[in-house]
Amino acid sequence: MAASAQAQFYTSYLSFGGLMIPIYPGARLSAPRNYVAPPLVGNFWILNEGDGFTNPSVDVQVAVRDVAQEALGLTGVIGVGSKFLDYALIRSADSANDTAILPGGVVFYNGVRALLLENAKFDSFSLSASKGGDITMRARFCGTDVISTTTPSLVPWSTARLLRYNKVTFAGALAGIVWSVDAGFSNSHSPDMSMNGTTGPAAQNAGMLGATLQLTGQAADDATMGGISTAAFTIAGSNVTRTFTFGNVHDQTPDDLSISIPRNMREHSYLCKGVDGSTSGPLVVS
Asked: pTM of the prediction?
């Protein structure tokens, strides 16, 4: 049998609005055709099919490095020079209150094919960290179509260090007592189902902002962790520092208990609301 060429994962990459960020294996572009194949009377098997609805998306885990313009990039404006988190966090000032389209879309290259997620928007992201581990950042993008695009040229990566657990600190009453954090943010996009002659959505429109927060600590700190009304943690590197502030939280699990060894632990899941009397949403990144 003749040897066949193998596409190695390290020849693959994603480009987000022209921005290159290293990613972990397991990234996925999903765009099923969802063909309709009705069981028509008189047929012993499927003979006819029709176009279904395709709602394409990209899911990826990005590397959190000590680089200002990568995963933690933020300028606070949409336009020339906008960074990664800007496209998730900033809404338009008009009545649509919508998110911005990433210029150039999301290019997904698996070493064999290059596909472009058109009219891509930043739907959601999550961050998690615990002592001894990486800072895990997952992101999801949605778009209107997937088309072939030019195979990209590989770019040289820098040797910037990864930001890990030891770069995460909590403020206020939570300082020094949190064992792990799982935080999330979502724009709750939904497809525009206008009939425009395509099999995909006419656009992706942002819905209600949502944030999630779960903290784990020792049962001995139950009263402190359950009694907070705000929560903030900072990821601090040499070249980039970001603070994630949940301005109005309520413990949803005040009576959840468990027994574990070698010490009793508690997981607290919080309802994250907007700040009363303010235009700030449930999560502010600065």
From this structure: 0.92
